[in-house]
Each structure stands twice: as C-alpha cells, then as structure tokens.
Amino acid sequence: MNVNDYAYPSARIRAMKGNLLDKTKIEELLRAHNLDEFVELLADTIYCRVFEGMGGINLRNIDRVLLDDLFDTHNKVFFMAPKNSQPLFFSMLMHYEIQCVKEIISSTISRKEVDTDKFPSRDPEFLRNLSKSDNLDEMFDLLKQSRYKKAFTEIQSVSDGTQILLALDKYFYDKLWRVLKSINNEIAKRILGPEFDFVNIMTLLRINKIGDSENRPKIDNYLVPTYKVRNIEKLISSGSIDEIVSNLSNTAYREALEEGLKAYMETKQLLKFEISLRKLLLQFSRKYLMGYPFQIGLLLGYLKLKESEIRNLRAIATGINHRLSSDDIKELIVI
C-alpha cells in the first residue's frame, strides 16, 4: 500500500467526518415534537443542504433525501478511493440497494403501505412490482427473475419472509467476502469482518425463533463466511436463544449479547440484540477511523459512521411521525 495514494482522500474524509452529528445534536432531535421541528434542528448542520429542494416536510420526503445523501456520500468515497480498493467500495454500494429491497419486502409482507419512489435504485420498476406482490410466492418468483436470482439457487420454496431476507444477506456478504479476499487488505478485513459475525449471529437467532426445530429452514443455507466466530457447528445445533448466547460467551460479542438476552426474556423480541450488536460495531468503526489516517480504514470507518447516522435519523423521523416518546425512539437508535 502506498501511503501517498491516501493523502488526498484522507484529507477529504477528515473534513467530511467533521460534519457528522455529535451525541448532543442527536439528543436534541429526540426531543423534537414534530417533523418541522426535526428539520429545523438540522438547519445548522450539513443536512441543511440535504433538505434544500425537498418539497413539503413529511416522512416520505425526509426518507428520500436521507437515502439519496447516503448513496451520494458513498459515491464520493468510491471515486476518491485508490483504484486498487474501488472494487470493495463498489461491492459495498450494492448493500444499500439490497437494504432497500429488504425494506420493501418487510413492509409488503406486513401489509404496510410503502412508497418505492423514495428508494434510490437502478431498477425502480422492479421495486414497484415487488411492493405490489399479493403473497410470498409471488414475491419469491419476482426475485428469482431479478438480478438477485443467484441468492435463491439453493432454495426451492419459502414458507416465511425471513428466509427471503436472509438469502439476500447471504448473497451480498458472500460477494463482499470474495472481494475482500481478492484485495488482500488486512485492515479492511478487521473493519468489515465483525459485520459478517453480526449477520451470522442474527441469522442464528432469527431462525431459532421460527417455530420448532423440525419446521425451521436449514440454517446452513443462510450463513455467510465467518470472521472470529469459530464454533459455528455448535451454534447451529443450539436448541434455544439463550443457548446461542451461552455458546458465544467467549467472544468479543458477549456483553452485547447478554444485554440483548435480558431484553429478549422480557419482550420475546430480537430487536435489542440487533441494537446492542450495532453499538459494538459502531465502536469498532470509530476505533479504525482514528487509528488508520492514511489507509483504507479511514474511508471504511467513515462510511460505517455515516451509515449509522442515516439509520438513526430515519429512525428518529419515523418515531416522531408515529408520535413515539423520546425514550421509545432512543431505544431504536445506535449512539
């Protein structure tokens, strides 16, 4: 790696990092009473420019411009990155597209109205057709005829929407792993590796929660390459959520999982697991953003912080729109 290759992008990223919101601003936003106040509180930040020309202040428009901003930011990082690392950033861009597809699938399955035009996409017609699916089989057929068809080559049928979401995750992370191996950059693996473990842990938890063991999908079909979690066969054979957590007690994820388990015992929901693990991933990203000023770690660390910020802003805006209390919204964000 030539340090000079990162001199210009490092200077740019340091400037862009200065525009990220601090904890004080996030806490201000949590106290907003409505979306007008939410937008007004962001008037002294970089998002003032993001909201220009947005049109009326409503959740749909806020969602649209925030997603556009995330895509635009990633494109900027992609074009400033050294050429030998651009394949990695190009692959990561696909992650945002898949997340949009997953969001539409989840909303459609839940019979929630979804506005597909707010999602940046190379194929908006596909997203619209997906949102109009009348049932799971129709949705599955559409996906098998799309650019994501390779995600379902090992799956003959689906009985639960979770299978579709997990298959899309596997499709993306398998491709990302191949790119990581091809560029052979240890720092990139250190930053992105824990995300592979996160996906596998959440997959194990979600599938374990689907009915009894005889009716669950085959877990092997949905697991992605592992990073630090090694005892994968033991985890697959775990009979319960708390057994999965116990079998991961000797990993860096122990405290986050124990926090998630405590909430799960009360609510029987997996959300706290996801939030706690995302907080840990965010800590890793901050560490690498500070520790590698003239390497790929700076670019990757910044992108991960930006992703988290956009996810938080969307969650806060949605919570405000649904008149959730600030305490309830705070439980949905990662800071």
**Cα shape:** globular
Order of helices and strands: HHHHHHHHHHHHHHHH
Specify the structural class. mainly alpha
**Share of helical residues:** 55-70%
Distance between the termini: 32 Å
As a whole number of angstroms, the C-alpha radius of gyration is: 20 Å
Beta-sheet strand percentage?
under 5%
| Mean of residue pLDDT values | 91
Give the class-level CATH name of the domain at 1-80 and 293-327.
Mainly Alpha
Number of helices: 16
Superfamily at the CATH H level of the domain at 1-80 and 293-327?
A: ATP synthase (C/AC39) subunit, domain 3
Oligomer: single chain
Largest sheet: none
| DSSP, total strands | 0
CATH topology (level 3) name of the domain at 1-80 and 293-327:
Topoisomerase I, Chain A, domain 4
Characterise this structure:
Helices cover 65% and strands 0% of the residues. It has a domain at 1-80 and 293-327: Topoisomerase I, Chain A, domain 4 (Orthogonal Bundle). It is mainly alpha-helical. Helix 5 packs antiparallel against helix 15 and helix 10 (186-208) runs antiparallel to helix 14 (271-291).
Key words describing this protein structure:
Topoisomerase I, Chain A, domain 4; 65% helix; 335 residues; 16 helices; mainly alpha
Secondary-structure blueprint of this entry?
Elements: H1 7-17, H2 23-30, H3 35-41, H4 47-50, H5 59-80, H6 86-109, H7 124-131, H8 136-144, H9 161-183, H10 186-208, H11 232-236, H12 241-247, H13 254-267, H14 271-291, H15 296-321, H16 326-330
Helix pairs in contact: 5-6, 5-15, 6-9, 9-10, 10-14, 10-15, 12-13, 13-14, 14-15
